[in-house]
C-alpha cells in the first residue's frame, strides 16, 4: 500500500444571522485556531472529526499534512475580514504543503460570513482551484448544516453526523478518511445525490435518542448497509440563518449513481412526511419552575433555556430564567453559565469572600429582558480553563475566559467571560460547584448537554423564554430564506432542489 500524504483541515462555525454579535478572529483563536504541527498536538486522541482523520491516516501508514484548523463556537456571522484571513491562510498552507494525495476537511456547513451565505462552498471552490481537479477530497459536516446542491460540484464525499448530541464526530471523521482511502487505494468512483427540502426544522426535538430524527437516522443507517451506499446523511439544517441555503436536506454518497439518487429521494420524502413531529410547544418559565417544584425526585431537575443556548447562537446573557429563579427565592439551586464580562471583572476586583452588588446579564440583547440586580457573595474565582470529561468533545480543553461562582440567597450562579453552553459538568465542577447536589438547575443549553447530564438529572424541562434561539420561528424577520417554506408557509411539495 502506498504511503499517501493526506492534508487535514478544520473550518467550523454555526452562524446565527439574527445575532447582534459578530464573530471575529479572536473568537476562533479562543476556541481553536491551530496551524501545522500544532493541529496534531491539539486533536490527537480527541473524539473529534480531526481526531478521526488523524487515527485513520496513521493506521493506514499515511503521512499527515496538518494545514489549518479554525473553529469558533456558534454566534453571529463571521466578519468578512476574519474569513479573508482564514481563507488566505488555508490556501497558503495548501500551497506550502506541496504535493498531496488527498485532503480531509472537517466543515460545519452552517457558517455565514458577511456578504457570503455559503462560505464552506466558497472555500471548497478555492481549495479545488488550488489543488486541481483530481485530488480526492472528503468532508465531514454537522447535522445542522444548511446545504445547497453546489457542494457536490467539488467532491461527492460528504458525511454528516448521525447523532445529536453530536457524539459521533470522531466516527464520521474516520468514515470520511476511510472513504477517501477507498478512492485512493481501490480507485473507487463515488457519486453523490442531494435533495434540498422546503423545511425549516426546529432543532429542539431533533435529538437522535428518540423522536423523528432517531427514526430518520435509523432509516439512513439501514440504507448504508447496502454495499453500494457509502454514506446517507440527513441534515436537519440550522433555522437561525436567514440565507437562501437554509433548511433541511439529504445527501447520499455511493458507488451506484442510480441507487444514490433513489436513496436520497426516499430519505428526503421520509423527512418531509415526518416534519410535523419536530414541532413541540413549551411552557413559560414561571409555569415550568412551578411544575419543577412539585416534582419529588432524588436527582436535580434541569430547566433548559433553549432560546439563549450559546451553541444555537444565543448571547448567553438573557435574564428571564435567572430573574424568575431569584424571585422564587429557591433553595439549593444552580444557574449557569451567564456570560457577563462586566460582572466577572467586578468579582475579580473584589476577590473571593466579598459580597457585592451586581447587575447581571441583559447587556448584549436587552430586548429579551433587563439585567437582574443582586447582592451576591463571591464564592470562588478561576481562569476558566478546564478539560471536558463528558461524552461530547471529550478531552478538549475549554477556556471560558475567566469564571466566578457567586451565591445569591440559595442560588449558586456561574459567571463566565464568554458565552458557552453548559454541556459538560466540568464547567461547574472546575470551580467547585457540584451540580448533582442541587435540586433545580437553570441551564443555558439545548440538546448537547443531555449527553453528559441525562444520567445526572431526573428530568429535563425545556422552557419558552425570549431569546435569539427561540423555538418559534414567527419571532424572526426572515428576508432571504427560500419561500415558500414549511412551517412558515403552506406548501404541497417539499422538494426544492435535487442533484
Ligand atoms: Zn450541530
Automatic annotation (TrEMBL):
Pfam families: DUF1485, MlrC_C. Residues 303-479 form the Microcystin LR degradation protein MlrC C-terminal domain. Coiled coil: none annotated. InterPro entries: MlrC, MlrC_C, MlrC_N. It comes from the Bacteria. Residues 5-292 form the Microcystin LR degradation protein MlrC N-terminal domain. This is Microcystin LR degradation protein MlrC-like protein. It comes from Brevibacillus panacihumi W25.
Amino acid at each position: 500500500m502506498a504511503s499517501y500524504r493526506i492534508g487535514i483541515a478544520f473550518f467550523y462555525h454555526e452562524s446565527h444571522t439574527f445575532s447582534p454579535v459578530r464573530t471575529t478572529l479572536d473568537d476562533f483563536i479562543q476556541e481553536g485556531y491551530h496551524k501545522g504541527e500544532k493541529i496534531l498536538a491539539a486533536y490527537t486522541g480527541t473524539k473529534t472529526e480531526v481526531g478521526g482523520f488523524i487515527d485513520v491516516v496513521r493506521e493506514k501508514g499515511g503521512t499527515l499534512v496538518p494545514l489549518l484548523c479554525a473553529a469558533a463556537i456558534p454566534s453571529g456571522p463571521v466578519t468578512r475580514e476574519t474569513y479573508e484571513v482564514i481563507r488566505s491562510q488555508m490556501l497558503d498552507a495548501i500551497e506550502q504543503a506541496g504535493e498531496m494525495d488527498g485532503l480531509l476537511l472537517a466543515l460545519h456547513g452552517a457558517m455565514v460570513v458577511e456578504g457570503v451565505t455559503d462560505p464552506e462552498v466558497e472555500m471548497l471552490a478555492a481549495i479545488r482551484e488550488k489543488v486541481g481537479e483530481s485530488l480526492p477530497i472528503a468532508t465531514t459536516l454537522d447535522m445542522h448544516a444548511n446545504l445547497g446542491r453546489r457542494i457536490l460540484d467539488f467532491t461527492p464525499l460528504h458525511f454528516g453526523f448521525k447523532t445529536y448530541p453530536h457524539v459521533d464526530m470522531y466516527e464520521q471523521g474516520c468514515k470520511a478518511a476511510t472513504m477517501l482511502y477507498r478512492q485512493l487505494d481501490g480507485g473507487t468512483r463515488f457519486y453523490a445525490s442531494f435533495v434540498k427540502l422546503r423545511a425549516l426544522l426546529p432543532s429542539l426535538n431533533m435529538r437522535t435518542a428518540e423522536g423523528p430524527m432517531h427514526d430518520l437516522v435509523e432509516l439512513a443507517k439501514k440504507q448504508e448497509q447496502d454495499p453500494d451506499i457509502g454514506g446517507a446523511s440527513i441534515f436537519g439544517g440550522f433555522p437561525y440563518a436567514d440565507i437562501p441555503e437554509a433548511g433541511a436536506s439529504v445527501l447520499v454518497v455511493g458507488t451506484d449513481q442510480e441507487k444514490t439518487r433513489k436513496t436520497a429521494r426516499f430519505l428526503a420524502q421520509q423527512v418531509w412526511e415526518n416534519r410535523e413531529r419536530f414541532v413541540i410547544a413549551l411552557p413559560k418559565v414561571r409555569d415550568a419552575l412551578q411544575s419543577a417544584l412539585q416534582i419529588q425526585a432524588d436527582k436535580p431537575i434541569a430547566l433548559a433555556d433553549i432560546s439563549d443556548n450559546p451553541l444555537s447562537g444565543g448571547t448567553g446573557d438573557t435574564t428571564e430564567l435567572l430573574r424568575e429563579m431569584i424571585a422564587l427565592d429557591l433553595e439549593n439551586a444552580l444557574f449557569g453559565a451567564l456570560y457577563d464580562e462586566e460582572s466577572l471583572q467586578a468579582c475579580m476586583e473584589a476577590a473571593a469572600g466579598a459580597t457585592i452588588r451586581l447587575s447581571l446579564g441583559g447587556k448584549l440583547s436587552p430586548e429579551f429582558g433587563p439585567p437582574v440586580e443582586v447582592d451576591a457573595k463571591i464564592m470562588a474565582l478561576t481562569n476558566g480553563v478546564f478539560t471536558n470529561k463528558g461524552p461530547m468533545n471529550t478531552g478538549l480543553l475549554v477556556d471560558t475566559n475567566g469564571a466566578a461562582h457567586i451565591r445569591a440567597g440559595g442560588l449558586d450562579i456561574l459567571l463566565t467571560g464568554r458565552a458557552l453552553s453548559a454541556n459538560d459538568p466540568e464547567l461547574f465542577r472546575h470551580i467547585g460547584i457540584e451540580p448533582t447536589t442541587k435540586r433545580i438547575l437553570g441551564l443555558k443549553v439545548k440538546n448537547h448537554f443531555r449527553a453528559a447530564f441525562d444520567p445526572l438529572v431526573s428530568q429535563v424541562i425545556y422552557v419558552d423564554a425570549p431569546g435569539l434561539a427561540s423555538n418559534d420561528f414567527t419571532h424572526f424577520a426572515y428576508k432571504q430564506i427560500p419561500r415558500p417554506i414549511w412551517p412558515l408557509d403552506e406548501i404541497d411539495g417539499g422538494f426544492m432542489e435535487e442533484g
